[in-house]
Amino acid sequence: NAGVTQTPKFQVLKTGQSMTLQCAQDMNHEYMSWYRQDPGMGLRLIHYSVGAGITDQGEVPNGYNVSRSTTEDFPLRLLSAAPSQTSVYFCASSYGQTFQETQYFGPGTRLLVL
Amino acid sequence: SQQGEEDPQALSIQEGENATMNCSYKTSINNLQWYRQNSGRGLVHLILIRSNEREKHSGRLRVTLDTSKKSSSLLITASRAADTASYFCATPPYSGAGSYQLTFGKGTKLSVIP
After folding, report:
1. Which of A18, A43, B35, B48 is an S-S bond match for B104, by CB 3.0 to 4.6 Å?
2. CB-CB under 8 Å, B2 with A99
3. Residue ranges of chain B whose CB lies within 8 Å of a chain A CB
4. What is the pLDDT of residues B16-35, one digit of tens each?
């Protein structure tokens, strides 16, 4: 199994540009989520999904959009990039439909917005 | 909002020594999870301890949980240079409202000096 994969590994954007961060898992996990990690802030939840067709907001959802058309994929869209969105983004998945179980993380996408 | 908080923020020890880091949380939990993050990488799950467990071992790792004090500790025995990483505790809140929100602390940065 590849586990949780993320692409790209690194991206530079200009303010106002849009892009999609890709996340895929091959473990048939129902639960998937997106976090951002900033220095001194820990990990903060952006959006999550408890199954195909079901998504909800986390702690810091503004400026981001998600959809879940399949169990495997959970892309994160930046609608109009801002410098405040410079961060490292992690996707995670787990069994079941809650946060109660072990989370499996992807390797991350480092995003720089100029 | 922060549920789990690690202490200390940073810890530097000599190879072969033991490392202890602590986590405090605020509300009732079903379980508490510890993760490791090597520099520039995603988080890796270490141990999940359930609320009815007091101690759990995995190799050189020992985790304790005191629900009366709302605290947990992670002990790494006979540390190695490869243990150099940041360590995070994560607390999924008790089932009910917000049970989809897994909250991470800001982490303890461990440096093991060869």
Report:
1. A43
2. no
3. 1-2, 30-31, 33, 35, 40-45, 48, 88, 90, 92, 95, 99-107
4. 999 999 999 988 888 899 99
CB contact under 8 A, A59 and B101: yes
Per-residue pLDDT tens over the stretch A5-36: 999 999 999 999 999 999 999 999 999 999 99
Cis peptide before A8 (omega within 30 of 0): yes
B48–A102 CB contact, under 8 Å? yes
Residues A23 and A75: beta-carbon distance below 8 Å: yes
Question: In whole numbers, what is the pLDDT of chain B averaged over residues?
Answer: 89
Burial class from Cβ neighbours inside 10 Å (0-12, 13-18, 19+) for residue A72 reads middle
